Amino acid sequence: MAVKYRKSRPERSRPRLASIDALVDRLPTPMFLIDRAGVLQHANSAGTETLQRAQYLVLHDGHVRPRTAKQKQQFANMLASVLSDDSITRASGQSASMSILDVQGQAAVLVAQTLRGQLNLCGKPQADAALFLIRPTEKAHINNFRLQIMFCLTPAETRLAEYLIRGMNLAAVSGQLHLSRETLKSQLRSLFEKTRTNRQGELIALLLSSLTVSVA
């Protein structure tokens, strides 16, 4: 059963579109909110089903883990990279990704994204990272034209959005496209403005939600 996670914040601080808190429960893509120790704080219905079926990921002593022991260290390294104590890393909303296999050997992409939520009464964030499991079906449905039309994105912004959905961070995109980090940061700021989101976790959740909503 999913562990319910709710993060209180003043209503005036919410973006005009739904924040990650509102998107998580209706997102068809499996999504998990975890704390710094990897303990599950909340999973949406798709995520709960994934854990119950031990598909890609399992829940062990309250911790989210890869289904196979072979990928345990890689998963731990990925979380360590996004949950670093380095203030610059956390302030930048660091993301990382890895390929993860299901019982049939089909690969999905697991994206870990730093969250910068409000502190609880004990002075600690209620969740520190979001995990997005992008299965082969979701990867196949990434549609640049649809993103461009829905949010009035430029071709460059749409391309960056696609790379972010696939789990790449700005450093990796910079190397792939041979563009400066400043250029990509400018495009990312424009994505935030056009989608009315504030953080990469919110942005990825919104983009995935938009791409997986059926169109008549």
Describe the structure.
This protein has 216 residues and is of the alpha+beta class. It has one domain (17-212): PAS domain (Beta-Lactamase). The chain is 41% helix and 17% strand. It is built from ten helices and seven strands. The chain has helices at 20-24, 45-52, 72-82, 87-91, 136-140, 144-151, 155-165, 170-177, 181-195, 200-212; strands spanning 31-34, 40-43, 57-60, 63-66, 95-101, 107-114, 129-134. The protein has a five-stranded antiparallel β-sheet, with helices on both faces. Strands 3-4 form a two-stranded antiparallel sheet. A hairpin with a 2-residue loop joins strand 3 and strand 4. Helix 6 packs across helix 7 (155-165) and helix 7 crosses helix 9. It is globular. The protein starts with 19 loop residues before the first helix and ends with a helix. 36% of the residues are buried.
